[in-house]
């Protein structure tokens, strides 16, 4: 890794992270910078055929930074691993330029990992395009391609290709925005439908309970009628003000 590449990475982190107060702080205190710098060395040894030495150096980096990058993985320029603890990047993963990865992210082999040595030498891990942002705890599994300028929400599990300029959310991950436009799901989100169904059922039961309560009180003239909150009796508006709908459509991305 040339000094110009190292300086480029330092500048990228300093420009992107508002918590960075100086470039010296980036050099001394950012495990993502340390892990990527060491990876360049281990990757050079890996491509030279010194596999065991490359793995050993990568292992030392993992112990000291909490970030595991297989020396066979290919990283682009200005990759920023923020915080980084628990990040795992597999052997055949390919990462483009200007990618941001947060803590707890896994770029894994998915089902191919369960096939053992049968998949040795095969492409098993994801390919990330340029400008991708991967939220904390996200899982990207298998030999899939994530296009340029894609944002993957925290905690998502992504198992299929994603086109450029998309926002992905959920388990399993689904595209909710593409090129700035909201995307209608081609496949129903079973989890979202189940939550909506339960919410509607609870609302109906609450209305029935209020109705029964009012009927009982009407049979007891000496007992004053309790006031009913009209706002609670009104059905929830299907607009974006419904907190459940807001959550299911990717709030916080």
CATH fold-level topology of the largest domain: UDP N-Acetylglucosamine Acyltransferase, domain 1
Question: Helical amount among residues, as a percent range?
Answer: 25-40%
Shape: elongated
Model regions low in confidence, pLDDT < 50 over at least 5 residues: 235-239
Structural class: alpha/beta
The domain count comes to: 2
* Number of discrete helical segments: 7
Question: What is the CATH domain class of the largest domain?
Answer: Mainly Beta
Order of helices and strands: HHHHEEEEEEEEEEEEEEEEHHH
CATH architecture of the largest domain: 3 Solenoid
How many E-type strands?
Answer: 16
Mean pLDDT: 85
Strand order of the main beta sheet, please?
3-6-9-12-14-15-16
First-to-last CA distance? 34 Å
The CATH H-level superfamily of the largest domain is: Hexapeptide repeat proteins
CA radius of gyration is 25 Å
Question: Can you describe this structure in just a few lines?
Answer:
The chain has two domains: 3-182, Hexapeptide repeat proteins (UDP N-Acetylglucosamine Acyltransferase, domain 1, 3 Solenoid), CATH 2.160.10; 190-248. Helix content is 36%, strand content 15%.
What does this structure look like?
- It is a single chain.
- The model is unreliable at 235-239 (pLDDT under 50).
- The protein is built from 7 helices and 16 strands.
- It is of the alpha/beta class and 253 residues long.
- The two termini are 34 Å apart.
- The chain folds into 2 domains: 3-182, UDP N-Acetylglucosamine Acyltransferase, domain 1; 190-248.
- The strands form 3 sheets. A 7-stranded mixed beta sheet has the order 3-6-9-12-14-15-16.
């Amino acid at each position: 890794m040339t000094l110009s590449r190292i300086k480029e990475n330092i500048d990228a982190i300093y420009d992107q992270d508002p918590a960075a107060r100086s470039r010296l702080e980036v050099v001394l205190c950012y495990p993502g910078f340390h892990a990527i710098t060491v990876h360049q060395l281990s990757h050079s040894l890996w491509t030279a055929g010194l596999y065991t030495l490359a793995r050993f150096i990568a292992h030392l980096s993992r112990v000291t930074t909490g970030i595991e990058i297989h020396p066979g993985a290919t990283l682009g320029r200005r990759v920023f691993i923020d915080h980084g603890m628990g990040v795992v990047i597999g052997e055949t993963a390919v990462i483009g330029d200007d990618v941001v990865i947060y803590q707890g992210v896994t770029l894994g082999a998915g089902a191919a990992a369960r096939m053992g040595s049968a998949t040795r030498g095969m492409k098993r891990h994801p390919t990330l395009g340029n400008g991708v942002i991967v939220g904390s705890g996200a899982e990207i599994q298998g030999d899939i391609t994530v296009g340029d300028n894609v944002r993957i929400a925290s905690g998502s599990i992504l198992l299929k290709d994603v086109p450029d300029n998309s926002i992905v959310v959920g388990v399993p991950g689904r595209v909710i925005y593409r090129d700035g436009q909201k995307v209608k799901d081609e496949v129903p989100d079973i989890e979202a439908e189940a939550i909506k169904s339960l919410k509607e059922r609870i609302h109906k039961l609450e209305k029935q309970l209020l109705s029964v309560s009012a009927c009982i009180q009407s049979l007891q003239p000496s007992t004053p009628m309790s006031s009913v909150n009209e706002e609670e009796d009104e059905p929830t508006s299907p607009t974006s003000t419904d907190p459940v709908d807001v959550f299911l459509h990717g709030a916080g991305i």
